[in-house]
Design a protein that fits this description.
There is one protein chain. By secondary structure, the chain is of the alpha/beta class. The protein has seven helices and eight strands, in the order H-H-H-E-H-E-H-E-E-H-E-E-H-E-E. It has one domain: 3-Layer(aba) Sandwich (Rossmann fold). It has helices spanning about 5-15, 15-20, 25-40, 55-60, 75-85, 125-135, 170-180; strands at about 45-50, 65-70, 90-95, 110-115, 140-150, 170, 180-190, 195-200. Strands 1, 2, 3, 4, 5, 6, 7 and 8 form an eight-stranded mixed β-sheet that branches. Strand 1 (about 45-50), helix 4 (about 55-60) and strand 2 form a beta-alpha-beta unit. Helix 3 (about 25-40) runs parallel beside helix 4 and helix 6 packs parallel to helix 7 (about 170-180). The longest helix has 14 residues, at about 25-40. The radius of gyration is 16 Å and the shape is globular. Bound molecules: S-adenosylmethionine. S-adenosylmethionine binds near residues 8, 56, 73, 99 and 118. S-adenosylmethionine binds near residues 56, 71, 72, 98 and 121.
Length: about 210
């Protein structure tokens, strides 16, 4: 990670109130695809990691039983809570949680894990650890939208901020999902630096 968790949290809290108005077309396309691919059933519990102001969590709340939205930035979550209240959505729980420790409590069921435009803040080793944590929830489906490289990124047109972001290649992410017992069933190329990766569990958790 190029910044500490606390530095990322502070950075996002500072811009939380303007965050929703500053997004690119690729971001919106990516978020829409994450929501579409997550496709929860009415009795599914969704865990959304790096939930921010709730783009994914709010988009899924009407279709799922419950959404557990986890983030490290209180400012971003405060925006998310405000929007959920405005829309009368009471089945979303915004609470502190880090990718590698989402603080779910021992008896929380998770059926689907989503994450959009957030995992790229971690180094590749930390991403692998986070994907291991996603798998350990017992979820049957993981849907990740993020800055990720299909090919060598154009250094003159980075889709990220090299001083704070640390995107992986799509291949590294696919390998991390398969190592955790998932089959990658879909990869959407939103941009040559933005991917949505869908993975379904093929290996059960050890008893
Ligand atoms: C670009 S925003 C994306 C927010 C939301 N998922 C969306 O699609 O709009 C990235 C979010 O990741 C959160 N974040 C950064 N590092 C994190 C970490 N280690 N664990 C959990 N969340 C983190 C930030 O606080 C921020 O809210």
């Amino acid at each position: 990670m190029k910044k500490t968790v606390e530095e990322h949290a502070e950075r996002f809290s500072e811009k939380a109130t303007e965050y929703d108005d500053s997004k690119s077309d690729e971001y919106h396309a990516c978020a829409g695809l994450v929501i579409d691919h997550a496709a929860p059933e009415p009795d599914d519990v969704v865990l959304d990691l790096g939930a921010g102001t709730g783009a994914i969590a709010l988009g899924l709340a009407a279709d799922a039983e419950r959404v557990l939205a986890r983030d490290v930035s209180e400012g971003m979550m405060e925006e998310g809570r405000r929007k959920a209240a405005e829309r009368g959505l009471d089945d979303i729980e915004f609470a502190y949680g880090e990718f590698r420790d989402p603080e779910l409590g021992s008896d929380r069921r998770v059926d689907i894990v989503t994450s959009n435009f957030a995992l790229h803040h971690l180094s590749d080793d930390e991403k692998r650890e986070a994907i291991g944590v996603m798998a350990a929830t017992g979820a049957r489906r993981l849907v990740l939208g993020d800055v990720a490289f299909f090919e060598e990124p154009d250094p003159n047109a980075p889709f990220y901020s090299p001083e704070v972001d640390d995107p992986a290649t799509v291949g590294t992410l696919v390998e991390a999902f398969t190592d955790e017992g998932f089959a990658v069933t879909d990869i959407e190329r939103v941009h040559d630096q933005v991917a949505v990766i869908v993975a379904e569990r093929v290996r059960e958790l050890p008893a």
